[in-house]
Design goal:
Length: 129
């Protein structure tokens, strides 16, 4: 299994990871059944092997089948991806990333969302983060 996780996932790889996170573990057949416009069974198996090589999945043998499991919890995978995003595009600046998100036209926040963000910022100040 690869130790260096590749952050970049194709659309189909993200769909597969979402399915496995949702189910907790899945066979190639289970993944294929849940994919929109599913490719062939052998194509799904190839993508699962690639995700395993990239370090996102591991497998266990269950009789004749491989059962695939994520190597990280969804929360840890999100944190890792966000850290990489911050380093790559924002020189490690959380402030820069938040400012960019708030500037995006598609991310208009409701008053309730703004209030929750303000609460998170206040909590971070109190905790000295």
């Amino acid at each position: 299994m690869a130790k260096n996780k590749s952050i970049h996932l194709s659309r189909r790889e993200r769909q597969i990871m979402d399915i496995i996170y949702e189910l907790g573990r899945a066979t190639a057949a289970q993944v294929r059944c849940r994919l929109p416009d599913p490719p062939s069974y052998s194509a799904v198996r190839a993508m699962l092997r690639l995700l395993e090589e990239k370090g996102h999945l591991r497998h266990r043998q269950d009789g004749p089948r491989y059962v695939f499991l994520p190597t990280l919890s969804r929360d840890k995978a999100r944190q890792s991806a966000l850290k990489q995003l911050l380093r790559t595009f924002f020189d490690g600046s959380t402030e820069g990333a938040v400012a960019a998100l708030l500037d995006m036209e598609s991310s208009k926040l409701s008053p309730g969302e703004l209030d929750r963000l303000a609460e998170l910022i206040e909590r971070a100040k109190k905790e000295g983060r």
